[in-house]
Amino acid sequence: MQCFLEEADKKQEEDSRVRNWVSDIREAVYNAEDIIDMFILNAQSLRRNFFLKCGFKKLINRYKVGKKIEALQLGLLDISNRREALGIKNIGEGRSRSAKNQMLQGLRRSSPHAEEHVVVGLEKEADELVNQLIGGDLRRRVISLVGMGGIGKTTLAKKVYNHRQVVECFPDCRAWAYVSLDCRPRDVYMKIIKQLVCTSTKDQQVLEMVEKLQEHELGDFLHEHLKEKRYLIVLDDVWSCRDWNCLAKVSSNDPDCLGNVFPDGGNGSRLLLTTRDKDVALHADARSTPQEMQLLSKQKSWNLFCGKAILDHVDADRYPPDLVQLGREMVDKCNGLPLAIVVLGGLLSRDMSHTEWRKVHDNINAYLAKEGSQTGVMTVLNLSYIDLPSYLKPCFLHLSLFPEDYVISTRKLFLLWIAEGFVLSAEQADQQSMKVTAEVYLNELINRNLIQVVRMSVNARVVECRVHDLMRELAIRKAKEQNFFRTHDIEDPLSSSTSNSSLFSSKCRRQSIYSDMERYASVEHNTPYLRSLLFFNLGHEICRFSQLDFIGKCFKVLRVLDLEGVKVESLPSIVGTLIHLRYLGLRHTGLKLLPLSIGNLRSLQTLDVNNLKQVPNVIWKIQNMRYLYMEGQKYDTPLKIDTLENLQVLSGITFKQWIQNNSSKLTCLGKLKLEGRYELVEGVEFWKSIAKLRVLKSLYLKASEESSFPSLAMDSCLYLSKLDIKGHMQKLSESFQFPPNLSQLTLDSCRLDCDPMPILEKLPKLLTLRLRAESYLGTEMHVSANGFPQLKVLQLFELSKVIKLNIENGAIPWLLQLHCQFSTRIFGVDKLSNLVEVKIVIDSMIPSFSPLARFLSTYRSRKYHLYWDHSWTTNRNGQKEFWTRRRKASDCQTCAATSLTAVQNSAVAVEMIGPIFSRWDSTQEKRS
Question: Can you tell me whether residue 742 is helix, strand or coil?
């Protein structure tokens, strides 16, 4: 039935009759799932009853199930008969030309073309906005970006917010807050305060104090903090004048009042608003002219399309003329709307054949023909959804569960997709590859421009992502058509207003909760077949024990329960009755103990919890467990886990707990993180236990503060490729003692006295090396010739005592990325011929670093056409980072030092760059 539904789903865009018919099929699939899951649930509960009583109830249970199956079969027969009555062709047959024309006509009627469109990437507008922020009079001004949804207001605001001149103008007091339709002043104030006040660990006490304040007290606190400062605050997506009044605390009796939250100190402070309503901009500051977003020109539209579809707009004309002609015609039909162009380009980028381009070219008319409504934009986005293969559609719809502008952890996203059953390996049995498959799905959605990348790892893997607001709206529309999910406590223009007692359809499969737990718990729940329940944006109130009982009582076939961020005192034992549960998220809940009944969750695949006092020794019963996260245990009590033969990730087990288990039984374990006191285990036996893990790729060792590592003999770990060691090391192991296939190594807080480079440079397959947080206490490091033959990434962070790194000629020949502290002088960087990226962490005590930024941004090597991009960022520790990357080098390989060596008569540049790239010959240009 599911396979049939996937095929039928592809046809439902053709005709409303097909769409209704597919909806009936989906309803039948849901009914079949419900019958099976409830039968299993009832059968499990009967096992605990008295024998005779149990046998009688089993007969009743089977009789009821039989009747339901009969009703289901009759329903399927009726669906089949109606297909013929409606004249619907067999699924799988090609659609007729007339049917296709009818579909296009229907799309034309329902796809009006918007009059207002988007502008992204216009340098002129960005420069004007920068000038308004850093120039003009000294009064506090509210500068607004106005335009329809999806026109690029947020994109331009972010570009300006991170502009070098803006950062320099507001170096210590900048904040970004997302407002959204569901405006909550308290949440907005907290976002701003966390960015302006709580920038380091020492401010945690202030944060705890601030979180206890009421909304009006937070406004007063923010006002006091800002009144003596020159600040820039971005309020993104303000919907109404009323929202502005609430945020700024403007008196309704005095509309000219500046408000009680954002003071005017006469020092050039600025607020930057993005809004869809021009009246909001004029209401916020009648003396400032709103900047209204405009359409892209034809040339810029074409350049954007080429960058997405052809990947290199410079060489676009070298592509077949027929594709170029089709592309230009399609771009013209987008009328300068960047979102439509980007989606269209992503759709075409995977297939450069004339047939595919002609097919999209012919269909795009239906989506762009009608003007005057936002529906046309949504229909263009819908084209990308229609084109998705069946395995990606539920993954895309699942993104609609997350709140607007929410930064999604890809690790969590993968686990949710797996628990939902969206990710299937080739034979549905190769469990080890499911996370890899999930990552492939994500990357495909990113390549189709349906998901935006927020942060990537040093290995170029996506760590965090988000969904554009219009893409999320598309996903919401599609999800509601399929009863895929519903939200609670969010204004929903797509559904009629309902009472709290009937918020959700009885067949709704998933719910996202954006309200507080107490309010949600008080609602009458009529969704007994709910499969997923996720909570977001909750407050800091403690959730009482009794408030969680309703989850076990009302949602008995639940598969996903994510309580991350919900402050709970304890978890009720009734949770153990959720035998279908596959994902249980309890991270950052403040939970200290788990009930013993958790061992009854035989279907559980993922348990994600942290900072427990102890983990109950019942985990061994959960045979289907694959991903177990339990970092931060307070007590090192016995924990049996060697029965979990499907376990793939184990994070947070202590060294003592680990050595008490037979590791050879963990045949699927690919990632392991151990914590605690290493000296409690015998070294040889420990590494023998690690060597037994035949598929282990990643190992993280974290010693407690009172513990330390001796010299580690890891050469028996033949399959290990990634190693992280955090904690004091008495001595660094010799190079031959490291795993022979090690490609990524991180040392953190190791406090080594001797230079680690002479040992580490001999690791033949090392690609990434990260030395962090006083991993080395010396002042100098030296890399000899031929050292690090394959290293591509070198990161030296928080090595406060290291002032010199000497790189001999011929060392690190393939280095691409170099990250270091400002205080570290690097000798020999001009020999790194493949270096393309440099990131420098600037200590707050060091004066302005802008001369280097200006130098790299304006310099152009006359001979080799070397360009550099650069930016300023702030890392998670609140430190400033200067990032520069080579944009393009033609005709030959050039290095970072090429641009530096060409400097002549530039005392400022030499003064600022000198401490990092220590010396070069300024009399002639060098090249590799």
Answer: coil
Write out the two tokens for 379. Answer: 């229909």
b/e per residue, 324-337, with b = 16+ CB within 10 A?
bebbbebbebbbbb
- Report the alpha-carbon distance of residue 284 to residue 851 in Å, rounded: 37
pLDDT tens for residues 276-310? 788 788 889 888 888 887 767 788 888 888 877 76
DSSP letters along 753-797, please? SS-SHHHHTT-TT--EEEEETTSB-SSEEEE-TT-STT--EEEEE
Place of tokens 């009302």: 554
Token duo for residue 450? 């349906």
Q: CA dist 807 to 338, 762, 902, Å?
A: 46, 14, 21
Torsion of CA 470, 472, 475, 479, to 10 degrees: -130
Could you tell me the pTM of the whole model?
0.67
- Of the candidates 367, 292, 294, the one whose C-alpha atom is nearest the C-alpha of residue 334 is 367
3-state secondary structure of 234: strand
Q: Span 583-599, mean pLDDT? A: 92
CA distance readout (Å), 255 to 185, 270, 284, 639: 19, 19, 9, 64
Instruction: Tell me the residue type at 630.
Output: M
Task: At 327, list the tokens.
Answer: 């592309």
| Contact partners, residue 123, CB within 8 Å, separation at least 6 | none
In 860-927, which residue ranges form alpha helices assigned H by DSSP?
Answer: 896-901, 907-913
Separation CA 467–CA 447 (nearest Å) = 13
DSSP secondary structure, 381-420, as one string: HHHHHHTS-TTTHHHHHHGGGSPTTPPEEHHHHHHHHHHH
Distance CA 764, CA 885 (A): 27
Could you give the CA distance from residue 32 to residue 34 in angstroms, rounded to a whole number?
Answer: 5
